[in-house]
Amino acid sequence: MNFLDQLRGARQAHHSLLCVGLDPEPSRFPSHWQGRSDKTFEFCAAIVDACADLVLAFKPQIAYFSALGAEKDLERLMRHMKDVAPQVPIILDSKRGDIGSTAEQYALEAFERYGADAITLSPYMGLDSISPYLKYHDKGAFLLCRTSNPGGADLQNLRLSSPAGASAQGGVAPERLYEHVARLAQHHWNTNGQLGLVVGATFPEDIERVRRQAPHLPLLIPGIGAQGGDAQQTLQAAWVNEDTPIVINSSRAVLYASPERDYAQAARAQALQTRDLLEQALTLHLATLA
């Protein structure tokens, strides 16, 4: 089963668009563990256990583990997720962006050391920064496209000198850099159908532009919840059909739903609320199309 099949299977089984990000910060652990980096695995594993039947995917962010010297905890957590939720794909959020033998090592780290099902990548060194990961034919890769941070516009919104496939005299506005990335990911780069795009919920109008360039790619969408993205607007902009997965991430709102010993139960309640909010937004959107 390849990554896209895993996403579709988890979507069908759990009726969910929700991805829970795993970004452990010991300073925000519940009060009885606050500041204890040695509780990183226990904290994250309890979240996984509580939410496993509610999510479309889990997304551990590698920097949070590496900063703590907790790579062994991440390895253990990856095995735990595969044991307790084998139907839920795991996206390793690392945003790698190198080339050649270095990229090959990063791919080995993600897919062989950690056993991830997909990875996040920066595409700004071109196809050379992506192709080493595509050698793992059953794995996925989400390319940074139009990210949720305001500073993303510094580069991603730059217009190219002329529109692709049309002359400037023809009245077609030059495409933005993120639109060009989306088009490459949909077509030239996506030789094995493994690619998806990262687009932020904070810019729904840009999601619409991405969808025009990449109508068939899965989207990984951060920015719902703590960053202020609107579920209804996001789904209106991103939804195509059930065969084209949308992965909507929430991290802090779920992980730190309670500062006390009931943190896992509170995380489940928050995940359930978010999942249902997304499903309600999707139902409303589909009703407008009927």
Description:
- This protein has one domain (3-289): Aldolase class I (TIM Barrel, Alpha-Beta Barrel), CATH 3.20.20.70.
- It contains twelve helices and eight strands.
- The protein has helices spanning 3-14, 40-51, 62-66, 71-84, 100-113, 131-134, 153-156, 177-186, 204-213, 231-238, 252-255, 263-289, and strands at 18-22, 57-60, 91-96, 118-121, 140-146, 195-199, 219-221, 246-250.
- The protein has an eight-stranded parallel sheet.
- Strand 6 (195-199), helix 9 (204-213) and strand 7 form a beta-alpha-beta unit.
- Helix 2 (40-51) crosses helix 12, helix 8 (177-186) packs across helix 9 (204-213) and helix 10 crosses helix 12.
- The chain is globular and about 60 Å long.
Using only C-alpha atoms, the radius of gyration works out to 19 Å
CATH-scheme architecture: Alpha-Beta Barrel
Tally the helices: 12
For the largest beta-sheet, the strand count, sense and barrel status come to: 8 strands, parallel
By CATH, the superfamily comes out as Aldolase class I
How would you sum up this structure in a few lines?
With about 290 residues, this protein is an alpha/beta fold.
Keywords:
single chain, 290 residues, alpha/beta, TIM Barrel, eight-stranded parallel β-sheet, 12 helices, 13% strand
Helices and strands, with pairings:
Elements: H1 3-14, E1 18-22, H2 40-51, E2 57-60, H3 62-66, H4 71-84, E3 91-96, H5 100-113, E4 118-121, H6 131-134, E5 140-146, H7 153-156, H8 177-186, E6 195-199, H9 204-213, E7 219-221, H10 231-238, E8 246-250, H11 252-255, H12 263-289
Parallel strand pairs: 1-2, 1-8, 3-4, 4-5, 5-6, 6-7, 7-8
